[in-house]
Amino acid sequence: MITLTKNDENDEIIKVAQLSVEDALKELNTSQSGLTIDEVHTLQQKYGKNIFAKANQEPLWKKFLANFTNLMAILLWVAGIIAFCADLVQLGIAIWAVNIINGIFSFWQEFQADKATEALANMLPSYTRVVRNGKEEKILANDLVPGDIVKLEEGDDIPADIRVIAATTAQADQSSLTGEVNPVHKGAHAVEDAKKKNHADLNNMIFSGTNMMKGNVTGVVVKTGMNTDFGKIAELTQNVAQQKSPLEKELDTLTKQISILAISIGIIFFLIATFFVHYPLVKGFVFALGMIVAFIPEGLEPTVTLSLAGAVQRMAKKHALIKRLSSVETLGSTSVICSDKTGTLTKNEMTVKELWTLEKSYHVSGEGYAVRGHIKEGPTHVFAKDNDTLKEVLLGGVFADNAKIQAPDKKHLRYQILGDPTEACLEVVARKGKVDVEAELKNTPRVKELPFDSSRKMMTVIQSSDGTHRFNTYTKGAPNCVVDKCTSYLEHGEIKPITQEIKDKIMRANDGYAKDGLRVLAVAGRNLDQKMMDNLDSATIETVEKDLTFLGLTVMMDPPRAEVYKAARECRKAGIKVTMVTGDYGLTAKSIARQIGLNDPDKPLTVITGDALKTMPDDELRHYLEGEVVFARMAPEQKYRVVSMYEKMGKIVAATGDGVNDAPALKKANIGIAMGGTGTDVAKEAADMILTDDNFASIVGAIKEGRGVYSNIRKFLIYILNSNMPEAVPSVLFLLSGGAIPLALTVMEILFIDLGTDMIPALGLGREDPEKGIMDRPPRSPKDHLINKHVLAKAFLWYGLIASIIATAAFFGANFYRGHIFPNLPEVGWDYRQATTVTLAAIIFCQIAAVLNIRYSRQSMFNKHFFKNSMIFIGIIMEIVLLLCISYVPVFQSFFGTEPLNSHDWIMLVCIPIPLILIDELRKWILRKNYKK
Hints:
about 950 residues, 6 domains, 11-stranded mixed β-sheet, 28 strands, translocase
């Protein structure tokens, strides 16, 4: 497996990250003045273009032909040949047409679904600025080589893996790699403990496929193309073979079973017809082929395909877009969901939840970037004007804020944040406290900023004083770092000297919030004297960030989605395990998991970090996966490993993600789920399903639909298979009687049932809503096949047996009514054709009863949803219309060998469904009664 976070001596990124700027340049054989043209040419020959190479792909023509050579397709080709051998040219053409349409449809679905690598390639910038031969120039990004000196500004896409050698207020958006939206501050200092860190945690490295959010960077290229972390994700994504879905495996198994059954029966009947009944060899062969036709469900594949397509349409209305039809059923088989946190389980909107001062703490209501909610002390609403300390805390957040909030518009359904989401929520809470943000910024504009850097973990702003504010300088940052710079604190309007006891009190509050997974920022102020204000050029970190006055703590979080708690509870009830796999910190991940009830509250919850997973053997990982676990600070290949291990344990895994880093895991999972709103194109292309509302609860709805689909496929399998028995019985009676009992059905009439009257009602069964209680049972076992003893018993020993008895009785009854009794039954002529038409009609009316009975496994069909599925009743009407057509329209009569039915026939046929329905209702009543006991 490809590793993106190696920490050995051969990892070039780790090596240059722990070196000083001068030593890093030496390591890469370059200098501040850049490479020479000759050096560039040599390196281009060695490393190639800075592009993402495409994996060798199977030719389109092979993919196309593969859809016509699977087992079910071969069976349909054989069925067509059988029709041609029986001189049924039109039906042979019809069967082959069904096969061709199915193959083209399947190929189109596959063609649309696999474009992940192309999407990766499109994320590289076209041009970039470099220094070569001591001169700055603009070149194509794909011409970059290791050792090039690159200059980047705010908004630039990063074209390679680059070691920072100079930076000014630099922040990078690494969300495409890590999945976490918070900007990462970048600098040129060596990272001495680089070997202990993941690549994404190296503050002196910026990575291909990410973006400069703020500031400027000069850097030296370390890796290009497929050697970058981004390229390794591309390679990992390419190397993940497209797995067959559980449904595809099931259909393969089903096809094999049906093939063996049909061919075995055909051989047996051929031997009986030839050696016992003494049929001519050719006639015996055609007779055997007719038996095979009776057992091949020609309509199975189009019925499954159209049923899945209908489910896809229904799921699209519930915010789930399916790219691969068979993924619908895979969802229903899901036993584990590996879910990202940010934006899926949470709202991806940082929100201030508490404000803490040495006087009191305040609760903040409302979530997200909309100004809905209040600052409260108990039940009382509190505003900035009511408390001097609270006002200063809020002003500190407003002044030390570089983010911009854009309200939703036609292009964006959610608030858009330009800058750090953490800073954006400080403006929102100030507005909740009735601070006039625009007036404050206008009256006291910023005159200088001492930007955040990772070494001191704080930022400071200096505002021009209008004489109305206590302070003209505000600092915010990590509580321990800010408190260390404080010599006083504000309480009840007075500035008091700070003591160690007060500092300990502040840090205890901070630690309490941190243990709950909340993010805490400290706010402090200072009033610079006029001399320093008049000479801001001399204002440095050392001279400004000292003798601060502690004001308070702002406590924030990315709140869970309101509907996720219910969805998580439904998952547990349905026997589905949810495992959070996030790039966020462990305490935060554990806190969110507990808040939303993601895991069993009665069991201990283990947090495993990416660092711990690096050295963890597979056996130990398997042990943790069997319990309650959360994964934090995960790198791309680590998420891939978690998904792979679950699959090795026999689980059906759904994995969610939105970043480029998630693409390998999405493609590896049985069902990859990408976010439609926040997801990258790469994640969407690698996924099997896209959530248009980025909502975990939509996954649960899709799983319910998927379970319903599997149940429905079983229903129409029972429906399709049960007619095979009355289709086969006439041939059995014909052979056993030595030909004294004529064939009650012709091959043409058998195919008319399989491809005509059975199709639309079967589609109706495929559109049934999930039955009540379908999410109250565990996921189906991968060992539980579509065709099992219960399905076979229902299809053949219940519905099929009853239909066989009725169809046989109808054949003999029709002959008796026309004056023919055994053994003097006609084999040709008007009366014979009428008798076969009555038999055909009897099977169709048995199927009408069957489709109504099969709708519910235990529940009575006579419920409030009886008329909800209109397709069922359209199918029944179409069955009768088709029967009328072949019975009364001359062209169809000659084609199918049928004759008109008389009034006595119709009276008998209409009565057939009544006892069948009553008998099955009695069976269901007994089942319900025993189930309750």
